[in-house]
## 1
Amino acid sequence: MMVITVKFLGGLRQEMGMESTTLRLPDNATVADLQDQLRALGLDLDAQKNIAVLNQCGLSQLPSDRQIAMDDVVMVFPNISGGS
Amino acid sequence: MFSGGYLGQILRINLSTRQYSIESIPEEKLRMFLGARGLGAEWYSREVAPQIKPFDPENKMAFFNGPMTGTPLVSTTKFELTTKGPETGRYLCSNSSGNFGPRLREAGFDGLILEGVSERWTAVVIEKESVKFVDEDGWQGLAPMDARARLLDQLPERRPKWATMSIGPAAENQVAFAAIFVDDGRAFGRGGGGAVLASKKVKAIAVWGDKSVPVADAAKCKEIAENARTDLKTSRAKHRQLGTSQLVEPINELGCMPTRNFQSSWEVPEKVQGVYGQTLHDRYYVRNYACYRCIVACGQVGEVKDGPFAGATARPEYESIGLLGPSCGINDMAAVIAANELCDQLGMDTITSGNLVAMVMELFERGLVSAQDNQGLEVRFGDAQAMLEMLRYIAQRRGLGAIIADGARGILQARPEWGRFILHSKGMTFAAYDPRGFHGMGLAYATSVRGACHNVGGYTVSEELMGKKYDRFAVEGKGQLVKTLQDNRAYIDSLGLCTVVRGAYKFSTTPTPETMLAITGYDFAPELMTIGERISNLERLILVREGVRRQDDALPPRMKEAVPNGPVEGHFISDQMLDMMLDEYYAVRGWDSQGIPQPETLQKLGLAEIPALA
């Protein structure tokens, strides 16, 4: 079993009511397992409402069978664009 | 062809003769170019010749609405400025929210053209289909909001119904990035449209009318509006909650935050949290700001209640925060609000203002200029009071401000050795995303028709984190990505709709027909992406005849330097990487190796006759 930290950025911090949380994953957990756990937190990752990033790469861009490591860093934030 | 969506006429005002006329727009032109940005580009291709300079009396300005502007749907607020702009010296397209576009439609017009130069400083008043002028020497020196208030004071009736545009003292001093302010809170920010309006001696414009904008199916429009409101309450809830300012944290965490004039792309979180959206909300938030018929109300009005900037009030967006904040070494939201407010009062674009103050700061840091060069003022990273003073210097053309006021192009002419410290493409300065962390954004800046811009150029950030075919540091695939985003944006900018709400109407790369059918009675949906592509190509043709070639689709030298720290440490964009992206981009666009649209591309898009206008 490993524990990884998920950071909530921007407006998601208020929505989730916390800056970060920890997820317990089995040692051989994959990107697909991580996505399932994030969805279980209530995060909408499917309708492009939120963007999840693993070690600076888009989570959805990684192979679903890629193994998660103990020191991986996950960030999730709302999918919005800038203004001026 | 159309049973709604268009009034079919534009108002042309000659400021020299004080004559005005009403002209019709052929339906075929509306079908080909849709409205707003598309109509502006088509008009510019015929009426603004390549040799005309931005402040020449022969330069003209057009303000076009889209078929959605002012209709009873949600957020139908946008209208488009087209002119030759001083920041790039070339074609400028710029869109703004506010009530002016909808009110212009209620006065009876899909567009407004200004030409000539007024003999005296004046304000133009458009009341239904009549035009009058309010000449006063007292217009000069007023802040945009003061000019607006002064003009409204002279319009005794229906005061709340008038919409306005106005400019500030920076425009009067021909600052190359002076903005036009719309009503009390929105602006044509980029490119220097304000300085062009000032060159015509027009301080403000007011408009009012009592017509309804016709729609093909009023009942269906009502249903679509109701569905959009329901959708937006959830889908854009976070926009309402924190606005675009909430991007500060993720963009910094992704290593793309302009920091000390892009010397880095990351700031220590403990420092930069001083300008987080959450900080704006917790310490300074007063209320939300909404544009015409918008329920999202994403604007976050902030007020500083104490400290050295007490009393400052502004509505900082992400871009303004990034460039007036971390890029100037400032991580204090109160200082950013004060700088944003000052830019608004002086009438200057916050993005270019922040970029060029940061450049001055770097010149001081490197010992390349001294206080002696700047009327005794030292401007160092992190010094907020000096930043505010430098903004005044620019607007007043004092000290180094005399050079900075001419924008990147002017600086490069006067002091070419400062070129490596200016972050720009084609003369327009970067938005608040460092392309070394999102290489597609580099291609977007390099190819954006109005110079480095995250909107017209294509906002690649989301796709570069979610697209299946590439990652953010890849160069392969970015040509197709940027083309698609640009064409999508070109048609959205032509609708008269705010891009924030486009999802509620399904205006994606595969749009659904309902909304445009209900508004115009014509099934635009199958053609919208082609219309976007047509507009992109027409705009490129305009740039080509104004001298743009591949060498102008460039990034500044700093992009070749490796980021020194943070999450994207070591990343850069070399000439070879940009070349690879450009090759792919030109190929998918059907342009030759110099970036000139090929005859068969123009034929396909119905633009074959346009080059003859050169």
## 2
Amino acid sequence: MSFVALAFAYLRRRWGQALLSIFVGALGIAAVATAVVGFDALPQAARRAWGGIDLVVGPKGSALDLVLCCALHVSDPRGLVPVKAAMGAVANPMIRVAAPIALGDNVDGWRIVGSTPAILDVYRAKIVSGQMWTDKLQAVLGASAARALNFKLGDSFVGAHGLAAGGESHDKFPYKVVGILAPTGSALDRLVLTDIETVRYVHVEQAKAEIAEKGSTDEENVADLPHGATAVVASYRVPTAAAFMPRQIDATDNLSAASPTLEIARLIGYVRPLTIAVTGLGLLLVVIAASGAAIGLLATMNARTRDLALLRALGASPGKVAMVAFAEASMIMAAALVLGSALTAGLLLIGRDVLADTTGLLLQPELGWDQIAMLLLGTISVTIVAAAFPALRAIHTQIEELLQS
Amino acid sequence: MESDLSASTVLATEGVVLARDGRAFAALPDLAIPRARSVAILGASGSGKTTALMALAGIRAPASGEIVVEDTALWGLSAAARDLFRGRRIGLVFQSFHLIDAVSVATNLALAARCAGLPPDSGRMNQLLETLQIAELRRRRADRISHGQAQRVAIARALFNKPAVVFADEPTSALDDASTARLLALLKDTAATEGAGLVIATHDRRVIDSVDETIELRSVP
């Protein structure tokens, strides 16, 4: 039997302890790898969240509100703007493309957004199946929305009033799915797009029906709907537009301009202490995980000290004794690396889906060569540290202690 | 390193003084042990028997003196050469046997060869296991054999590489009279059959009648 085979026999003999060491090691590796990949992929995902939107034009008010509502689609709208005025404000050679958006309804909590076909150009999105709407009450679904709602081309659904699930249903106005978009990693993935005229049509007709039935309607701003929109989103043709366009629009009486890049940078500035704390916690987790892996391995390897000292007494050189210790530690850590990599992949896949469905952020986790090298170096370091202690102890153990024990 | 001691002598010492924590504390009478002869080093606990055994086995250096196994001056070798020499020419039987639990009886013997850089000889293994009447234990894991069987495996391992001399440290300390007699007979007979010298370090006076010669360590003032 070779010394490597002896190391394997040790693992088989104490398989429970070995499994525990492998599991602890795998958890450590998964924690480190997930943190490394997450810290890198999350900011990139956040930057992709607002797609190609450089400018949001809406009613006067908080610029951050405008971005959160109309670029990231995570908060409620503040009112309407006249479409003609808003589109006029962005009719400038420095603007590559602009599209109005009208919010107000949802399907099972997924926002229905009325717009024009130009919205796809703003996000640089592509239809992956079906086509763009050509008539009222036709819908094109973002990738996450289509997956979560389990809608296929030709399916019908009815919208409900408001931006959260549970509102009054517009039963008389069923939509038909005519297209599904490819994932973009932006908030667009969570939207159900339709013609802006459809949003106006549904609400105006709903109001008419309610007035005919009850003498009044709960629909708000019905009178403004034919001419209004929640906002206009636009993409610059040239970066220098950022220096002129917002200032020019803010100078108008009833329009406000917001830049997602600036507003989110400002928001991140507000929550920087929190992100520092989260990063610190992440680093702490990494240290704890690495220590846990090293301690688990050390406990396993310490149990070998007596046998390793015996091998020395039987004539094995320090190198051979060290080889047994390192072979066993390496087998444990190699198994932990495989299991840890599988755990990391699983965690990132689950995390990607959860993040995409809840926030629309499309995590695209990728391990760069530098990160792989760092992970391997870390694993090898833990292996060396854990194996070195028992190997050194065995090499320097007074064999008379072994003889007398 | 060559020595001029007789070729039939497997272990010879001259002027060996033992040290503990840097201070000389005991001296070993000069020895010249031929093949198949058994010697007991007697002494109370703490008198230096184990330290003497460590010096004789090339594990811990004596304060002074010469130790020659066959024709090799043990402490004239480099550390690596001494390790290899110990594995090939010196057999060790520990008080608690110290078999490796995780592997079979056969593997315990094979590891003795591997540690000494030798290929395990399966014919030799069969012969030893049969001599010691434990051939049926060959594939059994070492933690699944009895105390008496473990004694025999430990003796087989000590003799596996055909050593010139076997050292046993307090092999009878936890045994009753009958077991002591059986173990000593087994050790002595097997070593004699193999042509190896046998040195037993013990405080057990029951050993005296079973060996060819006894010596006692002298205190160094």
## 3
Amino acid sequence: MMRYRLLRSLMLVLLLLLCLLWRAVPATATTFPIADAVIDSDRTRVPEGKLTIAVHVSLSPKWLNPQDNPGGMAYEMLWKVHDNVIKAGEGHVYSYALAEFYDMSPDFTVATVRLRQGLKFHNGDPVTAEDVAFSYENYHGINAAFLHAKTARVERVDNRTVQFHFKEPFPDFLLYYGTTASAAGVIIPKNYYLSLGSNTQERDEKFAQAPVGAGPYKFVRQEPGIEVEYTAFTDYWRKVPYVKTVVSRGVRELPVRVAALKSGEADFAYFVTGELLQSVINDPQLRYHPNLSAPFWLMFPDMDDPKSPFHDIRVRKAVSLALDRQYLADQETAGLAVPWGNFIPPEWPGAVQRPGGEFDLKEAKRLLAEAGYANGFAIDWFTPFPAVESLSLRLMEQLREIGIKSQMNVMERPVYMQKLLEGKPTEGYGHKGFPGRQILMSISVIPGDASLYVDNWLRCGGTYSFVCDKRIDALWQRYQTSRDLREREDLVKQAQNIVLDEYIFVPIYINSFTLGVGPRIAGKPSDYIKTPMTVLPGPSEDLKLQSGR
Amino acid sequence: MEGGAAVRQFILQRLGYSIITLWLLTVIVFTIVRCTGDPALLMSDYPGIRPEDLAALRTQWGLDEPYITQYGRFISNVVRGEFGKSFQFNMSVRDIYFKRLPNSLQLGVAGFLISMVIGIPLGIMSAVRVNTWWDSVGKLVALLGLSIPGFFVALVLILIFGVSLGWLPVLGKGQQFWEPRFLIMPAFALGWYFAGSMLRLTRSSMLEVLGSEFVKLARFKGTPEWVVIAKHAFRNAMLPVLTLAGLQLVLMINVAVVVEVIFSWPGVGRLLMEGLLSRDFPVVQGVVLMAGAMIVMVNLLVDILYAYVDPRIRLAR
């Protein structure tokens, strides 16, 4: 009996130890959670009908070639024809796609990917480990140099398994491989691609004219820049698409996109804004989805100058308190935008979740008076994000309420981006691209997770860096050396909290990239906006027309 | 100098001027597009792009080379009938241009016909019935044609015939080359503006001719009025109108930017717009140069025809 008790106690201790180990191991040795794909086993479906999407930009043929991919709206075309090894799925940042297994070694130096069985490209060729390895090795789009610099070699383990060996621990591999931060995880048929020419440029050009992928839709034809037509790929691994023909059409003019939606020539219209949004909301035939994208926020380029009023946290806080975010959202987006307290979109992994900031004019004025600006002050410029002048005018009016007077400094988008890249001076204060005393408005959608926002916007020397703060840089240094995923997430949150608590960035609201939905589309608009970190309706194989339409 | 030799010399001289004009155009367009800034910076708008990605793009597009090298390559391409590869589309600009040119020709010719059908008869009626309500209607049409912007006409047409009545499609040109349903609205929106200028020129030209001695003589001789108008006045009044019409046709084919963008018409005007917005230097250079070449060609042909028709012109040079 005594022996039995001892054994039982030992077993309990062992179990407890195992539990403790289990708590510790996932934080250090595993990777981000990856969801299983939802597979529809009904292969008898016959795709029917034609669906047209009115896209707000021109459609570049380059977007059909993942190897040369610039990211962003390119996925409108890319995800119809091609598929990733791992990608965002319904409600999940990472979901298995062409792969059925992924693993990262405990020391973060080897990532293993295993493909599903029986995958096919549109030309009938099987999808193999060789294609996965080639797609990675030959990839020369966004972030290619960064990925290749990290990679020692890519090993074809067997016909379905590939191992990526890194020169140093690379915990962020999936961040780049499984999101739109790069298209290195989008698989193309190696043999077909190589058959198109003798050099990369020639192959890229021809591949973009006649792309072959493993996505839910086969490429049919295109008018470069104008429209692309696809037809359903009935051998697609996840399901047989519902719609037979899908057309993406570039319609730059908003009134024409809305007119096409109303006349039935388009079934989805992207980026419906302003007064025309109200006409879509009022039309009983049409539906819409707010399709929230990313927050707008304000920055103070000269805040590190002790002579600047924005050097004082009370002034920056007063700016935040002076903004009636709900009013702005109501006026600018028919109430679809959501007031928000972070500059990183809430669905990004690692983003601090903060509701919209408080609106308190009285307190704002009190803070300004306390800081020595009872009568307010004038600044040189209020620089809007390009083409967002209307919201900027309202912001300027609200700031005038507390005595901050400004003039608008309108910039073309390329000029704005160019100035943003100029960064902070090596000596002195302020920002090289935005000199003088000004408030700058921005919005940014960086695929991946919150760490990429810290990398790009917050650390000293980041691509668009506006902040050079020793505390944030120290956090970033620790982030880069840490192998503990929980700690890394915590460090990224700490960096965000610094800029938000100290009003270094003042968020406004999450903008609405409203999707107009025509009467022929089956189901609710929300059925099509379920993939995290993208504003594109889909996935494409789930698009469905009402029967008989 | 004999007539044939004089004409030959005149043509050669004109040809030389045309080549110089085109060369100057290459210098101007090459310089101006580069004044708009660095195309790679537009890509910095793409989320998460790194400075090394931008540098790779500049190398790929040849923008890291000295301007003189870039210009040399541009000219060498032009001589070979090429315009380089589009940054945005990663395709030969020549291929894109000639794929879109037939669509622009279709739209340009249709718009041209509409402007002629509206402008010339109304211009004649305004001149013949000067200071009557016919003339008032003509002047009103000319005023509206010249003062209402093309985009507004296009949007009103879309609202009425596309959305409210649902008679005509609002997007694109259809799958087939010839689908008149798709052509009607863009052609009207394009032709409307040019109809105004055509009407005004026809009217003023007709008024001038109708007041001339030979028309009065024809009337004194008892020639029927319609013969006076159609045979004597109209034929003489048409010379400046046809000169303008030729240039308008070239413009309609090449720079119907607004109409092509609004109706999502796959023509060269929209291509130019896309090139400008994305700082796609090869596209802008190619489209502008082709448009310039067409205008120079039309002018050259007109000069040559004038020289053949009117010896005073060639002998004066």
## 4
Amino acid sequence: MASPASTSEKPKLAVWKFASCDGCQLSLLDCEDELLAVADAVEIAYFPEATRAEVEGPYDLSLVEGSITTPHDAERIHKIRRESKYLVAIGACATAGGIQALRNFKNVNEFVALVYAHPEYIETLKVSTPISYHVFVDFELQGCPINKYQLLELISALLNDRRPNIPPHSVCVECKRRGTVCVMVANGTPCLGPVTHAGCGAICPAYQRGCYGCYGPKEAPNTAALADEFLRLGQDHAAIARFFRTFTANAEAFRKESVAHEHEV
Amino acid sequence: MQTPETVEVAATEVPRDGQDSPHFSEDAVLLEADALQALIDGLRDDGYQVMGPMVRDQAVVYDEIQDVEALPSGWTDEQAPGRYRLTQQDRARFFGYTVSPQAWKRFLFPPERRLWQAERDGTNGSFHVTTDEDDPPRRAFLGVRACELAAIAIQDRVFMEGPYVDPVYAARRRNVLIVAVNCGQAGANCFCTSMGTGPQATSRFDLALTEVLEDDRHVFLAEPGSDAGAALLDQLPTRPATDDDRAAARRVVEEAIDSVERQFDTDGIHDLLLDHLDHPHWETVAKRCLACTNCTLVCPTCFCSDVEDRTDLTGQTAERWQTWDSCFTLDFSYIHGGSVRDSVESRYRQWLTHKLASWIDQFGTSGCVGCGRCITWCPVGIDLTEEVEKLRAAVTTPDSPSTKDGGDRS
């Protein structure tokens, strides 16, 4: 990020929210100790969760949280892309469609009719889609929520003009590095770790729980082989469909696997 | 289809230390089981951090122990492809398990380590580098199995005995005292007898123990393997071992040999694998393989690492870190333009052919010591011995789709 888009010395950072819970933005505020360093390194130009100050674009780095679920947002993301040098999608919503992408498997109008007293006021899209479905994305930081250290690493890498160290390998690598015994092998606990993107630090297996797949698919995941193993461990097709249909249900590999098992039920 | 050359390669692929009949040193002494605490105390008094087996996370793992209470007395493990269960035994042996989920490797070749850091000097563009002085603790490894000794010997060769010595590994390795414990039983995934690496520890230890638990006694036969081991024994309440004691120890090791069920035919394995790189069987394995990296990270000889540079937000400091890596990731073979091994079959094949075949060309031995970890800790239970056997069967069947002479590279 050698030449800032603004005349000010510091690169301008903007944080945008779409359909989401704000948890990933909070990961940035959670940086606490490092937050002052962030504020020192960049000009926080737009970040409603943190400040009312607003600086006009263009922006050097836009962090985009949330998925696209309304016609209005489908327009708004294009404007943000036009104003951003780098656009990074952060979190499961922005990178895969989020938990709200469960609507993609059903008829959204039925949900609307059930939930709202006046469904006629609701203008929503049939599907929840990731940012990359609408505009070019420079980097996708997966996780529900994202890991704050990975976010700092990403910002640091962009500020220093280098590739971020955010490996797309499995959660198993993190378990093995920290010395956690495999819960699937030692206890027969179904674990999505072998198909899930690293980044959380393998928290759940360290507490004897199987991985829930919060970080979405790893590089080239073999979900079918893992699902076969879940069957051998005594899980049925309905349970396997649920394993793959949580926070990143709409990520292609997980979507296909859950649909395959839904059809077996 | 064997050629003389093939036989020669096969004969040199593993270090064979004469495992055929258990033999115990004339210097062996007898240590009462009650005196095991004195051994641990002796090591601690000598300034060693004692690393040994303990039960944690439903497995026997290696970590720091203070006293015998930490040892997994009465516990054993049942292993199968993709399966490990801890169970209790009637016989309360301290070392009644086979091998732990992770090897001693993590103490010699740590999963993550900082190599150096650099800091900018003002704004003139210069910087200075600080190398981390690795000051490893003196450690005693208590309970090292024969296959694990063979694995450490292989990593010694890789990290210390070539033209480029890894200073971090070498410093840690020099500070280690090894107390081997002979196996009294084999797990279902053990095949040390096929690889010529066990079950008896015959060299490269400071002290080797054989745990004898009979009707009326619980003792250790202790053999010194170095001056340090002998000096340690001198501090302990021992008596010279009798021929009867040696016979009892021999029965323990023979029981382990007899309980090895898994046989792995390594005959001609070098050419078997390297002559069939395009065989369709690799694709069959790839359908099951998760490319999760578990086999490589639990393997006691796998030594691959990645190096990454980390910077702070200000760009004032940078650090270079080395981390465990695996040939099963796409990034591992990533070069300009993409990953060289972009299919799972190419990655599985790379691991297996390196471990069992090209390792021989590179280091003079097989990279496999027969500990069975990659079989047990594969979440879907892929068994390398079975895969090699299937390949062997497929290529020796006359109408098999062997692609030895080029074949179809699709």
